[in-house]
């Protein structure tokens, strides 16, 4: 098998960029932060190089990079808004930031995350920005699920998917087409910059765009609904978002009419991905993965709450 030349070439680019920024670079060993079909990310000291998905286009990525450059108090800005091409992939360069510690969930920065999202949602969206890619990513996960060989967990997930409105399945435009959204928020999209203990910033602009802001709250909402996020953590997140005047949910009262459809869509997306990964590894679903499928089964028996108007 021929080795993929992208990873060593990206590592060399990261090293060269780090040395240009810091001639006295201590030059520790490079670290591969991610090596997936949709993204390869390498760190060399204080510099990170990212090869974006093979289908990423300069037309879509350029305004997203420009937005990050102009919003340094919310989004981690790239080292330069102009990407390069390496082995047919678009590559961008970023300063390194300290991520959320996955081994210490009690320190998860729910308040900081909610405040950043509220600030992002209140920022006027640049005119050239494309739609945020949240629903499209959910649809892609479901398409991969449909392509699986028969699997007992597939049916309830697909039933929950078909019960969603067309916009949540990326079949029609979103109800809100003007609000600036992250598009793929989770705790892995937060870093402290400057490292190690600077303020929190959102990272990963690949899905940034205009759309329905409740989508950015949907993954924590889904975790809460599935019992994977404690009531206290959910209350901290939601309260901080409201305190920062976030427009995705009403300032008070029941937030669920605004959150229900996106939360269901994210539950389906996560379930679809876990089933696909489990099938590829030829293993049964674990307890958490099965709980997502069970949640989809429950959702398919109750119609989603439909908010007649955006919260903002």
Protein model, in words:
The protein is 41% helix and 13% strand. The chain has helices at 6-21, 58-70, 110-122, 134-146, 154-162, 214-225, 231-243, 256-280, 287-299, and strands spanning 31-36, 39-44, 47-51, 84-86, 89-95, 98-99, 179-181, 190-192, 200-202, 209-211. The strands form three sheets. It has a five-stranded antiparallel sheet, covered by helices on one side. The N and C termini lie far apart (54 Å). Residues 308-312 have low confidence and may be disordered.
Please give a handful of descriptors for the protein shown.
312 residues, alpha+beta, 3-stranded antiparallel β-sheet, disordered C terminus
Describe the SSE topology.
Blueprint: H1 6-21, E1 31-36, E2 39-44, E3 47-51, H2 58-70, E4 84-86, E5 89-95, E6 98-99, H3 110-122, H4 134-146, H5 154-162, E7 179-181, E8 190-192, E9 200-202, E10 209-211, H6 214-225, H7 231-243, H8 256-280, H9 287-299
Antiparallel strand pairs: 1-2, 2-3, 3-5, 4-5, 6-8, 7-10, 8-9
> In which order are the strands of the major sheet placed?
1-2-3-5-4
Largest sheet: 5 strands, antiparallel
The share of residues in extended strands comes to 5-15%
Contiguous low-pLDDT stretches (5 residues minimum) are: 308-312
Shape: globular
Calculate Rg over CA atoms: 20 Å
Helix content: 40-55%
Mean pLDDT: 93
């Amino acid at each position: 098998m021929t080795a993929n030349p992208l990873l060593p070439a990206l590592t060399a680019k990261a090293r060269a960029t780090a040395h240009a920024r810091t001639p006295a670079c201590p030059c520790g060993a490079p670290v591969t932060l991610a090596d997936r079909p949709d993204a390869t990310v390498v760190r060399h000291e204080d510099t990170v190089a990212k090869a974006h998905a093979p289908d990423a286009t300069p037309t879509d990525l350029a305004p997203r990079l420009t937005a990050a450059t102009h919003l340094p108090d919310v989004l981690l800005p790239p080292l330069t808004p102009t990407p390069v091409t390496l082995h047919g992939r678009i590559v961008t360069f970023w300063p390194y930031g300290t991520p959320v510690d996955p081994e210490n969930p009690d320190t998860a920065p729910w308040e900081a995350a909610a405040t950043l999202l509220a600030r992002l949602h209140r920022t006027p969206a640049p005119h050239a920005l494309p739609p945020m890619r949240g629903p499209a990513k959910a649809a892609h996960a479901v398409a991969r699920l449909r392509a699986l060989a028969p699997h007992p967990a597939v049916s309830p997930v697909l039933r929950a998917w078909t019960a969603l409105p067309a916009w949540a399945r990326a079949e029609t435009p979103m109800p809100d087409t003007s609000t600036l959204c992250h598009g793929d928020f989770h705790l892995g999209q937060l870093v402290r910059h400057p490292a190690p203990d600077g303020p929190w910033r959102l990272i990963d602009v690949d899905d940034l765009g205009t759309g329905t802001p409740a989508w950015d709250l949907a993954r924590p909402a889904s975790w809460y609904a599935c019992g994977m996020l404690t009531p206290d953590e959910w209350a901290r997140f939601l309260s901080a978002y409201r305190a920062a005047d976030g427009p995705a949910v009403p300032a008070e009262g029941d937030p669920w009419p605004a959150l229900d459809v996106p939360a269901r869509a994210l539950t389906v997306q996560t379930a679809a991905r876990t089933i696909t990964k489990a099938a590829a590894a030829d293993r049964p679903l674990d307890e958490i993965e099965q709980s997502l499928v069970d949640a989809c089964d429950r959702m398919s028996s109750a119609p989603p709450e439909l908010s007649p108007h955006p919260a903002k």
